[in-house]
């Protein structure tokens, strides 16, 4: 029937559909976690071993690079996503920046899965890194700490610069309001006389 009457749909109520979708998504995440936990640490360790080529200096250099870049850039992207909340159409940009931050952080997260993991793949990844990429894990930690420090310094300088700009603008506004008052208070000025 067409009109004000609603046509009743057959099937599950909306809350049941949402519950089923939520359970399905949760199960998919659990399966993905176990599949990735069995695959990612070993695979990532082999990629790093290929880059370091069993060289101590190369292992340290790659660790510092990944640690620094894959910590600083995600923090900067998350900060940018936080700062653009006042822009128009900010939701899309916030999601894009947050997604980009997570993507850039993936190498550090994969290294963390080797360091903190307790499965067979994590232990295999540790052995691969110990032999074929010595120094990588420790250098990644140092690079991550340096990345956090660089981000904090950058954030502090940026905040100071913005605050200084706001203070200067406020001072200009106050000076602009005081100038007409000063002109009208000049001694010897006759009302209505040309300046």
Automatic annotation (TrEMBL):
Keywords: Membrane, Transmembrane, Transmembrane helix. The chain crosses the membrane at residues 19-40, 60-80, 92-116, 136-161. This is Permease. Residues 168-195 are annotated as: Disordered. Residues 168-188 have a biased composition (Basic and acidic residues). It comes from Rhodococcus aetherivorans. It comes from the Bacteria.
């Amino acid at each position: 029937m067409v009109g004000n009457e609603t046509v009743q749909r057959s099937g599950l109520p909306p809350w049941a559909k949402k519950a089923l979708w939520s359970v399905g998504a949760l199960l998919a995440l659990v399966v993905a976690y176990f599949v990735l936990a069995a695959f990612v640490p070993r695979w990532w360790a082999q990629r790093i071993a290929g880059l370091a080529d069993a060289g101590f200096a190369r292992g340290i250099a790659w660790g510092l690079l990944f640690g620094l870049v894959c910590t600083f850039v995600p923090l900067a992207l998350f900060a940018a996503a936080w700062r653009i909340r006042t822009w128009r159409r900010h939701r899309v940009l916030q999601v894009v920046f947050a997604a980009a931050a997570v993507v850039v952080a993936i190498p550090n997260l994969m290294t963390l899965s080797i360091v903190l993991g307790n499965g067979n793949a994590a232990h295999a990844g540790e052995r691969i890194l110990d032999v074929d990429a010595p120094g990588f894990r420790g250098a990644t930690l140092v690079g991550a700490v340096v990345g956090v420090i660089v981000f904090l310094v950058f954030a502090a300088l940026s905040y100071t610069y913005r605050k200084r700009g706001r203070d200067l603008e406020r001072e200009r506004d106050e000076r602009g309001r005081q100038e007409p008052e000063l002109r009208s208070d000049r001694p010897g000025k006759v009302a209505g006389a040309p300046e």
